[in-house]
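HUMAN: Mind sharing a backbone?

ASSISTANT:
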Amino acid sequence: MPKESVVLSITSLLGWLKFSIFAVFYTNFIGQSIFKGDPNAAENSTALQHYNAGVRYGSWDLALCTLATTLYSIIVRQLSFYCNAKYVNAVGFLLISIATVVMAFLDNVVPVICLASMQGVGFASIFTLPFAILDSYREYFVVNLSNIICYFKLERRDKRWFLRDYGIDISILINSSLLCFIIISFAGRVLIAVTHSPRSAIVLSAGWL
């Protein structure tokens, strides 16, 4: 497996871990840390009502993330044409990680929801840019679009990529999204149980990047 593909796969996995942790634990974070609710409180209690209200707000915010994902996905591919896709990916993740850390330590619902909506940019990036980067690798190592060269010259150029099936690398990137859910199903719950704070999961989601 080419080292470029290994690095890209690891980066994709970390990116999926970041956004999966956020998506899974965000509504719980809003309900407990922002609205000061308790999911284990007695039925019809104020604490449980606050928690349910926080979950509803969090669910609407995830819908805003979906809207941001849709809008950013329209321009991210064009943006990668003018700037290197790797830099667009890295800068986007860095800004979102900073926003996530800031959000984790706020108690006001309005700035938290605004910052959390930015996660949509990250979702659009992780769905598109790793595949754009993979495509640029294959173009660089296998196909030279500006100068068509023969099979033997291509083979001498880089056998690691020329003899490698495109579908294998795509499947690895896709499977990284599935592997991350197995990881967070253990790590996220253990972290919250140890720290007794849903904020820790949000901080962890920023820490992956």
